[in-house]
Design brief:
Layout (H helix, E strand, L loop, with lengths): L17 E2 L4 E2 L6 E3 L9 E3 L7
Antiparallel strand pairs: 1-2, 3-4
Length: 53
């Protein structure tokens, strides 16, 4: 649940959920996942990515 003034920073501009003007995600919540079952923090990415048309 999104709290007042809570934002999810995002600069993945080819995702349709990204508000490119403010570099924030428009979703109330996102899921994250690890690439290729790697448990490194650097391999964590947004699982809510949806390519912009």
């Amino acid at each position: 649940m999104k709290k007042d003034k809570q934002t999810i920073k995002c600069n993945v501009h080819d995702c349709k959920h990204c508000d490119c003007d403010s570099d924030c995600c428009s979703l109330n919540q996102i899921k994250v996942c690890n690439c290729d079952d790697c448990k490194e923090k650097e391999s964590t990415m947004c699982d809510s990515y949806d390519k912009r048309n």
